[in-house]
Amino acid sequence: MEKSMKALLEANISEAGYEAGNPKIHNVSLTIRPGKLTGLIGANGAGKSTVIKAILGLLPYADASIRFKDGSGQYAYIPEHPVFYENLTLWEHLDLAAAVYGLEQNELEAEGERLLQKFRMTEVRHHLPGGFSKGMRQKMMLMIGFLNRPDIYIVDEPFIGLDPRAIKDFLGLLEEERQRGAGILMSTHVLDTAERICDDFVMISQGRIAARGTLEEIRSAAGRPEAPLLDCFDVLAE
Fold first, then answer.
1. Against a cut of 0.90, is the pTM above it?
2. Helix boundaries (H) for 27-152
3. Backbone dihedral angles phi then psi of residue 158, each to the nearest 5 degrees
4. Residues 46, 205: contact at Cβ < 8 Å?
5. Which of 34, 32, 4, 28 is nearest to 16 (CA)?
6. Deepest in the core among 143, 160, 162, 222, taking most CB within 10 A?
7. Residues of the chain below pLDDT 70
8. Strand pairing of 152-156 and 9-17?
9. Tens digits of per-residue pLDDT, 33-91?
């Protein structure tokens, strides 16, 4: 990874958890750079979501240094579990997000329409998400996240509930944003997809970093020079 590229996000977490004296993660550090996709990988319960919550300042206890580019702290967070208002339609959720982001109405119309078409959700734009499937709710979360086109995307387990076409659409948007210069931190345990799309990895096991680096560096650490990421994970993660 290019050292000359200014980091969009630098996170150094000494320890963090949900109560003092009982940390769930220890000594986790990572850097997100422009145009790069870093995969935060590990088994369920390894601590991936806790790392993300520590970065976002959502934990009641964290000994951490989190530095965003220029101190702006501007990012899009796409959670694992969709969060929505029962009485707002899909479009009203986008309208509300646009107001929070400070987007003009014409920007909302342009980006909102583009995302509705991209995710094939145009026909349900005025429907309440309470009647959506899990995959449709996840698409709504993705649209809200992509609406403002920030410098940093923090995405927690995005593939859960998405059908193959929606996954392809999502990955296409990620690639567009990378080409634009956005940096992405993506937590996932879908290792075959992560292997194809990520520039580098931070592997978490039992709340600590088990390995980090490019696929080649992960393979080297595992002593498996030609192995897929899943096989390396089996070697390196406890």
1. yes
2. 48-56, 90-101, 105-118, 134-147
3. -75, -15
4. yes
5. 28
6. 143
7. 1-4, 71-73
8. unpaired
9. 999 999 999 998 899 999 999 999 999 999 999 999 876 668 999 998 999 999 999 99
Compute φ and ψ for 212, nearest 5 degrees: -155, 160
Is the CB of residue 62 less than 8 Å from the CB of residue 16?
Answer: yes
Distance, CA of 236 to CA of 166 (rounded, Å): 31
Specify the pLDDT at position 72.
67
Nearest to 30 by CA among 160, 233, 224, 199: 199
CA distance 185 to 52: 9
SS3 call for 75: coil
Rounded Cα distance, 19 and 186, in Å: 25
Q: Which residues contact 137 (CB under 8 A, 6 or more apart)?
A: 82, 84, 129, 161
The residue written with tokens 């978490």 in the block is: 204
pLDDT at 20: 86
SS3 of 161, please?
coil
> By the 8 A CB rule, do 40 and 186 touch?
yes
